[in-house]
Amino acid sequence: MENEEIRQLLKKYNEGRCTEEERAVLEVWYLEYNEETDINLSPREIHAMQHRVFRELPGNQHEFWKTGLRLAAAAVLIGIVVTVTIKLALPPGTPAAIAQDIAPGKNKAVLTLADGRKISLTDAVNGQVAGGPIRIMKTGKGEVTYQVVAKSRDGGSNTITTPNGGQWRVVLPDGTKVWLNAASSFTYPASFNGPDRIVHLSGEAYFEVAKDKLHPFRVQTKQQVVEVLGTHFNINGYTDEAVVRTTLAEGRVKVWMQGDTKLLMPGQETVLEDNKLSVRDADPREALAWKNGYFRFNDENIMSIMRKLSRWYDISVQYDGPAPESRLNGKISRETNISRVLTALESTETVHFKVEGRRVTVMR
What we know:
The chain has helices at about 5-15, 20-40, 45-55, 70-80, 285, 300-315, 340-345; strands spanning about 65, 85-90, 105, 110, 120, 125-130, 135-140, 145-150, 155-160, 165-170, 175-180, 185-190, 195-210, 215-220, 225-230, 230-235, 245-250, 255, 260-265, 270-275, 275-280, 295-300, 315-320, 325-335, 350-355, 360-364. It is of the alpha+beta class. It has three domains: about 5-90, no CATH class; about 105-285, Jelly Rolls (Sandwich), CATH 2.60.120.1440; about 295-364, Phage tail protein beta-alpha-beta fold (3-Layer(bab) Sandwich), CATH 3.55.50. Helix 2 crosses helix 4 (about 70-80). It is globular and about 70 Å long. Mean pLDDT is about 80; it is low at about 35-45 and about 55-100.
């Protein structure tokens, strides 16, 4: 579409005068526009373009996709092949479909030192939280860093644990950066002195591993080991999920379990299910969505979606009858209250919710 046509449609959209066909054309255009910016532009260009679009198209900071009849009309009108889903804008003034609200998670974690002492990183003041040959510092960004003051043969192991509704970042002594998602536990040496850099993970984390060809970096979970020299990858190994996913964003990693070894290239992931390890193509944007501040659902059922929401919003989930069978696609900010997320899900007309305290009931 030409710029003038887009401007006129945006004006009619804001005034509520768009026909169904015009709304379809505009929403499909925006879907393509937004996906192109994600792929082809620099972060600065993306931010500037999104700001301009957000200013004219209300509510698309809280987007959700839904298959509908308007898709076919849009495809005919603009003469292109489009994906099977479209974005539905959720205007800021849309009333929530629930009576109560729950705030999103935030930076919360507990640090357990080698001597057993526990430090609430949530409550600790910024600055040094532990001393000795290795200083442990808390920054103002929900982050812990390690500073080696003097050489130590063995600094012992530290563990950072995030609760439901919590997240944290840590910079290890070798410079490796780790982002921890909610309901996760990460154990690591306070100093790396051996031939290998070995850490342990339960839950989900994103790693940017500092390069060191002489000292391989290994992440051990309950079921597998991931070995790297220097790379960026995400591991989703929650015990309440049926599969363990290791998704590679940059570099190369080797994943093995019980003698089976797989080598990953960027844009691939291993899937460990029923003690079988396989490799498939993956979209790193989906795996890293949580780290970048939003939920991204890709052909996902409601039970999987609700497990993610339960960890981030610290809620309990129950089902009134069988869970809806529809599979949903969408993206929505993790920084919003749960009412916005549930209202967006309800806009698909496949599911409804009732909230009582921190308990969410899922209904057809």
